[in-house]
Amino acid sequence: MKRSHILFLALVLTGFSCSKKRYADALTPEEALKSFQLNEDFNIEVFAAEPFIADPVDLAFDEDGNTFVVEMPDYPYKPEPGKGRGRIKLLLDTNGDGRVDKATVFADSISEATSILPWKGGLLVAAAPNIWFMKDTTGDFQADIKKVLFKGFFETNSEAQITCLRYGIDNWIYVSNNGQAGSVTSETHPGKPALEMRSADFRFKPETGEFEQESGPGQFGQSFNEWGHRFVTQNTIRIQHMVMPWRYAHRNESLPSKKGVQDISNGDLTMFQETPPPYWRAERTARRVKEYAEQGLDRKEYAEDHFTGASGGTVYAGQTFPEKYVGNIFIGEVAGNLVHRDLLTPRTDSPTYFAGKDSISENNKEFLSSTDPWFRPDNFTVGHDGALYVVDFYRQHIETPVSIPEDLKTDMDFIKGSDMGRVYRITPKNPVSTDKTAPKLSKMSSAELVTLLAHRGQWWRLQAQRLLLDRQDKSVIPAVTALFTDDKDPRARLHAFFVLDGLKALNADLVKQAMQDPAAGVREYGVMSSEQYPQLLEELIKSTADSSVRVAFQATLSLGQFSTKEVAPAMARVLEKYPNDPWFKMAVLSSKAGSSPEIIKSLSAGGSFFREVAPGKISFLEDYAYMAGSGNRKEETRKLLQLFSGDDTGEEWKLAMLRGLMKGMKTSKDGIKPDDNQKRLLLAMLPSSGTKVHDAIEQIIDL
């Protein structure tokens, strides 16, 4: 048994009930360091602590290495309108010893700010119900410009509001919205219609005024790997991969499922914490388990060693960690007082990823764990120095009061520790790079910024990309084009590609070059960009057979933007190659051509798809029929029935078609009308009535 657990049990058994015994006191930053158990390849040190910061929830370094932190002292209570105490601070290390010794308030009196992102010499700020732009124009490090860019986001629950502003390699800025409802409008482009946000996350381009829903939901944790693939964290689900963007998943309203996200943790909730569960959680769990047993419910609940407060998932793509850690995702568990590490590996048989728990190979230890129950690692960032910065909210309790029984709250102070907070810096004992060049990117020429697109560290590449687009300096186009064409590092080529995109310097030839790039990560975005160039349709069709499953998947999605006669046969070939992958099925069905009668004709003409029954094929046909039925189009339904009316069509195929039609008709907007003989007969003739499937189909066709 863990030493901390023995102490907890001793306190319970001796009957102590006062808050001092039930809940531990805070540690000093130096004492907290001694409570850590860290992966042996790394060192950890205090970067910032009280009194210079308190209640930190996000940390960001701007293009010149200036450090900004977001503080959220109002949590878990919602402040009264106009009385928010949230702050953004600029942190300074005046003596150069690597630890913050001064803080300046950049902006204060903010209601529930959760995230910041450097942009155009200032900061974008997520603070529901708004996204702000704040900037200091006088040099006193205090924001004198405070302008709302978007408004209308959900603002009721601080644990479910917009957060995680992240700059994507595709020049879009992404925001986690936890799928909450909201009617979002642009203050800078008031003529644009409101955007309904339920079930979606959000992305926007402030320069152009574009904004739209994005697949989600993510709660508190959003990150991109070096190829722009997006991962989010949501409480018990520590890691999800955003596989299909919203714009594809929602282009066909009849699609049975529009969920573009995949849980790649495989439902594994286990973790290895060193702290005992707090008294309130242990007691609440015991009560719930007792209730489940009394009600005969087959339900389980855990008080410890299972993810319940996963936060801040961040992919490491810096320049100093050993290679085996690059591309890993680090996730905080605020209830378990630990930092978990997952290995992200692209699947070779699907467009998704594997998330392997490396802690299993480390003798059931997490990357970082603490015996201090106040340790609340809620967020991370990778700095310009390649270090991993751990943001520690540092509170005695981190739970919304509404979820705790009243009698258990009597000795709980939910804001105890609101004058505290820490940020830790994790560095490797044997760094790959020891370059400690201080960033001063704002002072660099545009030509110098172009060279940084090939930097080993993602922070440097993204900052250079962002600044080049801020400047819109067209003189660098030849140099960026040369980088895209000639650089040996595919990551540099990809950043160069999107700088050209942001400078409006892409053309069909460059996009075709990207589609043929040796690196799959570059080909994927070349394929995506080909949607704007109809003359590349033939090349796009070729890409659906790419050796990389991820490129083939994107090509299938992009091909769905076209409706010419070549599309359906190409999509049929995709289904024949990936008959059991649900993502390829969804990609095909989401398109106009992939949900038309032509796709069934193409599959039948190919001869192989319907030759053998397979679960994925049956699922495709049932979903296809569902879409036909939900469209409430009698003639299209008749054609589908005719295709499967022959004696040479197996009964399993016919049953799948009939099941799909029935489900679709039930959900169609017009519903099932009493006078619609075709629909009524279809429902009556299903095999459950004892009528032969073939006879049922023939009778419906004859109506």
Quick summary of this structure?
The chain is of the alpha+beta class and 703 residues long. It contains 21 helices and 28 strands.
Task: Explain the layout of strands and helices.
Elements: H1 3-13, H2 19-22, H3 29-34, E1 36-38, E2 42-49, E3 56-61, E4 67-71, E5 86-92, E6 102-110, E7 113-119, E8 122-127, E9 130-135, E10 145-151, E11 163-167, E12 173-176, E13 183-186, E14 195-196, E15 201-205, E16 210-214, E17 222-224, E18 230-234, E19 237-242, H4 246-249, E20 261-263, H5 279-294, E21 310-315, E22 329-333, E23 338-346, E24 353-357, E25 368-370, E26 377-382, E27 388-392, E28 422-428, H6 446-452, H7 458-471, H8 477-486, H9 490-502, H10 508-515, H11 520-529, H12 537-543, H13 549-559, H14 567-577, H15 582-589, H16 597-606, H17 615-630, H18 634-643, H19 651-667, H20 677-684, H21 693-702
Antiparallel strand pairs: 1-25, 2-28, 3-4, 4-5, 5-6, 7-8, 8-9, 9-10, 10-13, 11-12, 12-15, 13-14, 15-16, 17-18, 18-19, 19-20, 21-22, 22-23, 23-24, 23-25, 26-27, 27-28
